[in-house]
Amino acid sequence: MTQIRKPVASDKQQILGFCTNTFSWGDYIHEVYDSWTNEGELVILEENNEPIAMCHGVIYSEEKMLWIEGIRVRQDYRRKGFAELLISHLERNAHDLGISHADMLIESENVPSLNLAAKIGYEIKSQWNYFAVESKKTSYSSLFDSVDYDELNYSELRFVESWRWIPLTRSNFQRLNSDGQILCIRDNKKIQSLGIMTDSRSFDNTMILTILFGKSYGIQKFIQYVQRLALEKNYSKLRILTQQDEIPIVSIQKKFPFYLVEKIL
Ligand SMILES: CC(C)(COP(=O)(O)OP(=O)(O)OC[C@H]1O[C@@H](n2cnc3c(N)ncnc32)[C@H](O)[C@@H]1OP(=O)(O)O)[C@@H](O)C(=O)NCCC(=O)NCCS
Question: What is the pTM of this model?
Fold first, then answer.
């Protein structure tokens, strides 16, 4: 019998048991499983009394967004429609709460997931690149320009927090701005480059810089600043997310392209 339910304590070991070598680099579910069981909606699919698939959904009420992440189906149960069942369960619950769209991030080479997303009505909204960068001592200046939300005429801007692509609403902007997380550089008074730095709550020790837009000079300043800050604050990982194909830095360790996909519920 197939059943979708909330997690119970005994699920953890079985779920983590098949979330080890999911990708060439391994998996991250063990890092987030505990926080996901306490935050948002972690759903488990059980088949004949065994947990064989999971998925996590987080509701962003103000943004009217359901963020979907961590879809995992045990290898020997794939291609039976279980991922579709889990996602539509989360979508239905979110729709009942007045949520208007569901979003997720898919690696550009993950063909099964891209096909899955397309089959159930998701469309590619934007392409992003992920750069792994080292923290290090740099000659940097923390003098950035101030910026007001009303100057940003881009309703589609997003920033990355805890590996979720969150719309930059006025209240998100104000929260980030009062915490000094918004980096701005102007050129002749006009905003030339804009970045947002966050530290990940679910993922240990990660600082993330989203480059919303910018020119080489500004982006380089942002990167130097966060490299130094990551070192000072003892973050072991520094990640840069941007829609640009290249970033002006020599010591890039890795680059991965991803798609942000969205469905109107
Ligand atoms: C991607 C994944 C979640 C799909 O789970 P699943 O239960 O096998 O998917 P479903 O059976 O619901 O498949 C639904 C559709 O997805 C697509 N799909 C799924 N697996 C596919 C594959 N291996 N190749 C091509 N298309 C595939 C198909 O369109 C499929 O419909 P169809 O069977 O009618 O052709 C599963 O392969 C998995 O756990 N992969 C590793 C983790 C991962 O990549 N997670 C997603 C990160 S964004």
Answer: 0.94
pLDDT in tens, 2-45: 999 999 999 999 999 999 999 988 999 998 999 999 887 899 99
Q: Which domains does the chain have, with CATH numbers?
A: 2-99 (3.40.630.30), 130-264 (3.40.630)
Of residues 26, 78, 16, 93, the one with CA closest to residue 47: 78
- State the helix-helix crossing angle for 111-119 and 82-96, rounded to 10 degrees: 50
Given ligand 1 and candidates 19, 43, 115, 116, which is best to mutate, with the most ligand atoms within 8 Å of its CB? 116
- What pLDDT digit, counting tens, does each position of 217-241 carry? 899 999 989 998 888 888 878 899 9
200 CA from centroid of ligand 1 (Å): 28
Q: Whose C-alpha lies nearest to ligand 1, atom 25?
A: 112
Q: How far apart are CA 118 and CA 246, in angstroms?
A: 28
